[in-house]
C-alpha cells in the first residue's frame, strides 16, 4: 500500500532530510578536503563562501602519497586486529550472554553486576596497569597484545543478554522437552534468532578496536605493528603537520566502518519479529 | 522495547559520563574550567599535574557514581522483577 503524501508528511520529510544532511556535512567536508591540494584545505574556510564546500581544484596526490607510505600496512594491521577481535569476541561474548540471560545458576546477578562494572571503568584508566601485565607475558608489538583486551567486551555481552532475554521462554522449554542440552539450545535456537543482535555486538567490538588509540600506542608502537589510528596521529609531529595526509587518512578510516555498516544494514530489518510466538 | 531501551539508556549514560577525547582536543576544559568534564579532570591530574594518586581516587569515585546511576536505571526499567 502506498502512503499518500500530506503537507504535514512532506514537512516531516524535509526536516528529516535536513537533519541527515547536517550529520553528513562534516564527512563531506572531510572527503573534499582529502581531494584538495594541501594548501587549499584551510584556504576558503574564512570567510565562508561557495568555495568552502565546493572544491575548485581536485587532486589525488594526497591519496597516492598516503598509500605509497606505511599507511597501507597500518590499515592492514587495524583490519586484522578488528576482525580477529570480532570473531573471537563473539565466541566468548555470545555464550556468556546466553548463560547470563537464560541459565539460572548461583551467583548470576553478582557476575552480571561485575560485567556491568567492567564497562563502567574507563579503559584509559586501566591501560597503564594492563600494559605492565601484558609486558609480563611478553606481548608488546604483537597481534595478541592488541587483540586480547578487546575480546571480553562487557557492552557486547550486555547487548546480547538483553536480546536473548527477549526470546520467548516457550521456545527453550519446548526444546528441553525434546531433549536438547544447553549448548544445542544456544546453537540451534538462540543464535539463528539473534542475527541482528550478533551483528550489533560485532560492530561494537569492531569499532572498539578500530578507534582504539591509547592502547595500541602503548602496546604496539613499532612500525610494523602500529594500527591505522596511531599512524594517522603520527602525520602530525612537532616539526611538520601534513594536513593533506591527515585528511586522506581520516577519510579512509571513516569510510571502511561505514561500508561495513551499510553492508550489514540489510540484516537489521528482519529483527525481533521472527521469533514465531504469540504472548 | 523495554529490554533494548534499557541497553540504550545504560550504554548512552556510561558513554557520556566517560567522554574524554572531544574535551581534550577541542577546549582542554577551558575557558576557566567551564567546559571541563570529569574524565579530562582526571587526565589532567594524572598526566599534567603528575598526581596519579588523586586521579586514581577520582576514577574510583566516578565508577561508584556511574554504577549508582546505572543501578537506579535498572531498577526503574524493571530489570529486577523479571526472571
TrEMBL record, chain A:
GO biological process: transmembrane transport
Transmembrane regions listed in the UniProt entry: 12-30, 75-103, 110-131, 143-164, 185-208, 241-264
Keywords associated with the record: Cell inner membrane, Cell membrane, Membrane, Transmembrane, Transmembrane helix, Transport
Cellular component GO terms, alphabetical: plasma membrane
Domain of life where this protein originates: Bacteria
Protein name (Swiss-Prot/TrEMBL): sn-glycerol-3-phosphate transport system permease protein UgpE
Primary role: Part of the ABC transporter complex UgpBAEC involved in sn-glycerol-3-phosphate (G3P) import. Probably responsible for the translocation of the substrate across the membrane.
Compartments in which it is found: Cell inner membrane; Cell membrane
Family, per entry: Belongs to the binding-protein-dependent transport system permease family.
Residue ranges occupied by any ABC transmembrane type-1 domain in the UniProt entry: 75-264
Membrane topology of the entry: Multi-pass membrane protein
Subunit structure as annotated in this protein's UniProt entry: The complex is composed of two ATP-binding proteins (UgpC), two transmembrane proteins (UgpA and UgpE) and a solute-binding protein (UgpB).
Predominant cellular place of this UniProt entry's protein: membrane
Gene assigned in the entry: ugpE
UniProtKB/TrEMBL annotation, chain B:
Record's subcellular location: Cell membrane
Superkingdom of this protein's organism: Bacteria
Swiss-Prot/TrEMBL keywords: Cell membrane, Membrane, Transmembrane, Transmembrane helix, Transport
Transmembrane segments: 7-27, 55-74
Predominant place of localization: membrane
Cellular component GO terms held in the UniProt record: plasma membrane
InterPro entries reported in the protein's UniProt record: ABC_transporter_permease, MetI-like_sf
PANTHER family: ABC TRANSPORTER PERMEASE PROTEIN (PTHR30193), INNER MEMBRANE ABC TRANSPORTER PERMEASE PROTEIN YCJO (PTHR30193:SF37)
Name of the molecule in the record: Sugar ABC transporter permease
Biological source species: Devosia sediminis
Amino acid at each position: 500500500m502506498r502512503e499518500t503524501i500530506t503537507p504535514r508528511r512532506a514537512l516531516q520529510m524535509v526536516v528529516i532530510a535536513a537533519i541527515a544532511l547536517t550529520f553528513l556535512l562534516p564527512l563531506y567536508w572531510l572527503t573534499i578536503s582529502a581531494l584538495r591540494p594541501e594548501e587549499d584545505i584551510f584556504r576558503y574556510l574564512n570567510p565562508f563562501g561557495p568555495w568552502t564546500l565546493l572544491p575548485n581544484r581536485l587532486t589525488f596526490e594526497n591519496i597516492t602519497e598516503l598509500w605509497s607510505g606505511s599507511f597501507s600496512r597500518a590499515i592492514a594491521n587495524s583490519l586484522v586486529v578488528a576482525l580477529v577481535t570480532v570473531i573471537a569476541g563473539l565466541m566468548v561474548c555470545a555464550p556468556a550472554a546466553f548463560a547470563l540471560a537464560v541459565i539460572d545458576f548461583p551467583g548470576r546477578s553478582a557476575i552480571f553486576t561485575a560485567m556491568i562494572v567492567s564497562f563502567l571503568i574507563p579503559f584509559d584508566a586501566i591501560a597503564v596497569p594492563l600494559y605492565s601485565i601484558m609486558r609480563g607475558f611478553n606481548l608488546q608489538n604483537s597481534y595478541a597484545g592488541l587483540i586480547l583486551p578487546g575480546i571480553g567486551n562487557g557492552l557486547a555481552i550486555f547487548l546480547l543478554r538483553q536480546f536473548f532475554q527477549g526470546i520467548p521462554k516457550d521456545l527453550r522449554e519446548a526444546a528441553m522437552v525434546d531433549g536438547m542440552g544447553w549448548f544445542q539450545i544456544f546453537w540451534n535456537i538462540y543464535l539463528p534468532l539473534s542475527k541482528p543482535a550478533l551483528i550489533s555486538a560485532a560492530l561494537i567490538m569492531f569499532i572498539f578496536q578500530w578507534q582504539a588509540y591509547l592502547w595500541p600506542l602503548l602496546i604496539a608502537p613499532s612500525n610494523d605493528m602500529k594500527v591505522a589510528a596511531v599512524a594517522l596521529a603520527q602525520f602530525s609531529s612537532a616539526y611538520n603537520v601534513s594536513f593533506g595526509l591527515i585528511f586522506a587518512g581520516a577519510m579512509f578510516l571513516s569510510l571502511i566502518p561505514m561500508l561495513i555498516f551499510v553492508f550489514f544494514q540489510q540484516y537489521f530489518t528482519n529483527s525481533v519479529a521472527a521469533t514465531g510466538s504469540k504472548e | 522495547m523495554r529490554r533494548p531501551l534499557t541497553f540504550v539508556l545504560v550504554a548512552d549514560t556510561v558513554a557520556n559520563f566517560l567522554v574524554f577525547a572531544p574535551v581534550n582536543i577541542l577546549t582542554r576544559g577551558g575557558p576557566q574550567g567551564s567546559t571541563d568534564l570529569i574524565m579530562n579532570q582526571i587526565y589532567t591530574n594524572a598526566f599534567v599535574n603528575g598526581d596519579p594518586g588523586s586521579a586514581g581516587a577520582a576514577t574510583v569515585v566516578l565508577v561508584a557514581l556511574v554504577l549508582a546511576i546505572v543501578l537506579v536505571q535498572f531498577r526503574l526499567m524493571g530489570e529486577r522483577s523479571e526472571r
